[in-house]
Amino acid sequence: MSRLTDELVLNWRAMVGRTYVRIVGSIREPAWIIGDAVFPTLGMCAFVLLYRALGAPRSFEALAVIGGILSTYWINVLWGMGAQLYWEKQQGQLQLYFVAPCSRMAILSGMAIGGVLTTTLRTVFGIAIGFFVLGVRVEPFDPGQLALVFVASMAALYAMGMTLSSLFLLYGREAWHLSNAMLEPVYFLSGLYFPLRALGAVGAVAAGLLPLALGVDALRQVLLGADAHGLLPVGVETALLGGFAVVFLVLARFALRHLENLSKHEGRLTQRWQ
Amino acid sequence: MAVSARSFGARLRTAAWLGWQIESNWADPFVFVVYAVMRPLATALILAGMYWAVAGQAARRETFELFYLGNAFHIYVTQVLVGMGWLVVEEREEYETLKYVYASPIGMFTYLAGRSTVKMALATLSTLLVLLVGWFLLGIRWEWGAVAWAPLLLVLVLGMVASLYLGFLVAGVALLLPRAAIMLNEGLAVSLYLLCGVLFPIDLLPRGLQELALVLPFTHWYEALRRLLLGHGASARIGAWSDVTLLLVLLVTTVAFTFVSRWGYLALERRARQLGRLDQTSLF
Amino acid sequence: MCAPLSSSAAVETRGLTRTFRASRSGGEVCALAGVDLTIARGEIFGLLGPNGAGKTTLIKILSTLLFPTTGEARVAGFDVVREANEVRHRISLVSGGEASGYGILTVRECLWMFGQFYGVPSSVAWPRADALIDVVGLREQMHTRINRLSTGQRQRMNFARGFMSDPEVLFLDEPTLGMDVNAARALREYVASWVRERAGRTVLLTTHYMVEAEQLCDRVAIIDRGRVLACDSTPALRRQVQGGQHVELEVRHVDGHETDLAALGGLQAVWGAPHPERATRTLKFRLPPEQPLVGVLKRLEGAGVAVDGVATRETTLEDVFIAIVGRAIEDSEAPS
After folding, report:
1. Nearest to A157 by CA among A239, A241, A86, A219
2. CA–CA separation, A67 vs A62, rounded Å?
3. How confident is the model over B136-180, as pLDDT tens digits?
């Protein structure tokens, strides 16, 4: 029991240490606000205006705004956590993490939590632009249900991010390019800017594989009701997201260990410029 | 010291070779091609998805075709702009070679231009693929016999030049603001998405932003491409101009843009040098 | 038959090998070709070798960053493959020339942060960071961001980071690389006092600087091409190659004839760096007892080479290295 406590304390401290870097860095170099918060919101605006140009009902604009807001979390998962190990490796930091006794998942959690500041600001900005500038509207909703769906979505998403990050232990630029290439395809398959139902069977399969797809669909249903053109009932999607979180966490633990061992066999753990 | 044409050519070729080596050496060719086409293809499919979603309720097919085309050619802007910004970030933070390149006689302009050639090639590949998907999957077609090839070629070249010089400007920002550069690259591409009529006519923008859009060469580039391929543009405001007027405006704005970008890059580089940013890492 | 690995040594390896795939098309590089080492607790152990000898590969295996291809290794009594996490609780690693650290953090913050990865409570980590900052002479820079430090200052901070967890076994991989003479000397003194301060602390040091190895190390192993060629205390190693004189000649008019002259009279000689102002170069060799120096000087004279100066001296670790490895540490053939 004492040993377990020691491990928990160790990993807690490691998580705090890594979170500190991200938060302090965000505060000390605030120029990211323009790049991280303002510009991506403009992309969301572009899709809203496209719907207007196409003559779509106003509810579609709300769909696009909700999707745009959630895209910030996917970006944080992909770049702030997953691909971060790639940068750590390139800078020579990664080996120091692997010599240390703390868990890799503690380090990744620290990165994710540290990224909450930037992600939250983007979300607030997106809400402000979407709802107060573009005039998008939502239906009355249950805050408790919204919070539950949101938390389940984030748990699944970040657990998936941890699993993805393990790829960077073994692969270098290949994994980086894969992450880069996955950005828009995931947006498409998740129905980030349109109802997933529009993709038919493809959408259903994507929802079965991508937590972002389920999360977007469930949150839209909470906020827009029938106008969200949801795929599955909210309760079912929330339960699936919870399942995803558990599965990905277990998978992440296994994947991190397995790929760490594999990269140590092949000597790629500390190999830069790969 | 004047640089001879041969020397310039050799340096440019070396930079281009390096760009190719870096872009192509990390995976087998099949994966490389998949990567090169996946992202722009997905962007095109997002638009298709949006159209399919509203097709039963408000189908403006003509509108969709105009913006699909704009999105296809916006790949040049995205690839080159983002690519050149990332280039500086990678050289400084990852490979730590930026200071050596800068201190060598190759010249940053030549180096960046050479390195951008592979980006241009990738953008061309991606654009062609998106157009092919549009042609075969979505029925977005035009009469080849009606296309005026000389103006089309001129328009394409002007667009590429504008993309390249925008890339220089972004590279300059990356020299000065390493941390911000990463997101600024992507953000700027998205801003142009919004401002230049890629996905919707600039007529939908507030009046002040419309004026800003008219100053950017990309706005006229997309309109010119639409006219040359589909027979008409998206914006009613620009639609009132003749073809010759539109081409002239594109030419003038592109030339002006190159001067502004070059001046901007040099100012940013000078400032980065003053502040000692050329070899300073800051990723966290 | 090899004795099984014990748990009382700080570091122990048996038949350790490591090969790498040379390229995608095949081919292998053998970085370690069967390394047997035992480092006792409380030792400062040096590992000398030219570039590409396998020093860093060995350190990576011992610090759990790399698996061996075959063989076993134990650190602080734990197997580096099967009990890696136990090993990590007890070790720390400092790699010279690495610019590790987040540029956005200050020196003090960076040290504290790495302490967190080892579970050091903040109440201990902050004072320890302050103490280490004084040791490495960065008091004035303690609140400076790392991306504003010079190379030497970053290396000193990197050095301090290695001590934050107060490890049982400390791996120092060329720790004074990039440091000025005074800073390097201060750090060597600190390492020696740190080990003496508490029983059981052990250091494995790799270095290119012979002076560092001679001053600090209780024992030194010389490694080349993945094999340990010699392992003993410095006096014992010197005794192995003693006999004859160590001669240094300052010669001129040698351009293009270095290879011929180095093999003059069957001597295993090594060239030093040229002196541009004097247009001379140093030629070093060990003269066997039965061979008079005057004979060598006459052969050089006959080849048209002028000798400006002659000096003889005692055997140093560098001489041992040259005698065992066959070339100077700077003249390695393998890339770094």
Report:
1. A241
2. 8
3. 888 889 888 888 899 999 999 999 999 999 999 989 988 888 767
Contact between residue C92 and residue C171 where contact means Cβ atoms under 8 Å apart: yes
B283 CB within 8 Å of a chain C CB: yes
User: Which of B46, B45, B229 lies closest to B141 in space, CA to CA?
Assistant: B229
Rg for chain B, CA atoms, rounded: 20
Could you tell me if A248 and A163 are in contact, meaning their C-beta atoms sit under 8 angstroms apart?
A: yes
Signed CA dihedral, A79, A191, B44, B212: sign only: negative
Q: Angle, nearest 10°, between helix axes A116-127 and A58-75?
A: 170
For the ranges A55-59, C31-35, C176-180, the lowest mean pLDDT is seen at: C176-180
- Measured N-to-C along each axis, helices A201-209 and A173-189 cross at an angle, to the nearest 10 degrees, of 130
Q: Which residue has the higher pLDDT, A116 or B229?
A: B229
Q: Are A214 and A153 in contact (CB under 8 A)?
A: yes
Q: What is the pTM of this model?
A: 0.72
Edge-to-edge, what's the strand order for the sheet holding C91-95?
Answer: C91-95, C169-173, C202-207, C44-48, C219-224, C227-232
CB contact at 8 A, B112 and B200: no
Q: How crowded is residue B96: how many other Cβ atoms within 10 Å of its Cβ?
A: 15
pLDDT (0 to 100) of residue C332? 47
**What CA–CA distance (Å, rounded) separates A6 from B138?**
60
How is residue B31 written in tokens? 């994966």
DSSP sequence for C249-269: EEEES-TT-HHHHHTGGG---
Per the document, the length of chain A is 274
- Which residues on chain A are in Cβ contact (under 8 Å) with B188? 39
Query: With contact defined as beta carbons under 8 Å apart, do C215 and C56 qualify?
Result: no
Question: DSSP state, B150?
Answer: H
Q: Where are the domains of chain A?
A: 2-265
Cβ distance A180 to B35 less than 8 Å, yes or no, reads yes
Buried b (16+ CB within 10 A) or exposed e, C316-326: bbbbbbbbebe
Nearest to A20 among C60, C65, C113 (CB): C113
The three-state secondary structure class of C307 is strand
Instruction: Say yes or no for a CB contact (<8 Å) between B284 and A174.
Output: no
Among chain A residues, the shortest Cα distance to B194 is held by A46
Query: What is the rounded CA–CA span in Å between residue C12 and residue C62?
Result: 9
Q: Which of B40-49, C32-41, C98-107 has the highest mean pLDDT?
A: C32-41
CA C273 to chain centre: 21
Evaluate if residue C253 carries a pLDDT over 70.
no
Q: Which tens digit of pLDDT belongs to each residue from A224-239?
A: 998 888 888 999 999 9
Tell which C residues from 99 to 128 touch B, by Cβ distance under 8 Å: 99, 102-105
Q: What's the pLDDT tens digit per position in A55-73?
A: 888 889 999 899 988 888 8
Give chains near C: 3+ CB pairs under 8 A: A, B
**ipTM score assigned to the predicted complex:** 0.75
Residue C55 burial (CB count, 10 A): 25
Domain ranges of chain B: 2-274
The two tokens of residue B33 are 């091609």
Nearest CA in chain A to C87: A101
Out of B39, B187, B193, the one facing A35 most closely (by C-beta) is B187
Estimate to the nearest angstrom the gap between the alpha carbon of C229 and the chain centroid. Answer: 15
Q: H-type helices in chain C, by residue range?
A: 55-62, 84-88, 107-116, 122-135, 151-161, 181-197, 210-216, 234-241, 258-262, 293-302, 317-325
Instruction: Please state at what angle helix A39-54 crosses helix B29-55, rounded to 10 degrees.
Output: 50
C247: closest CA among C268, C263, C274? Answer: C268
Percent of chain C with pLDDT strictly greater than 70: 87
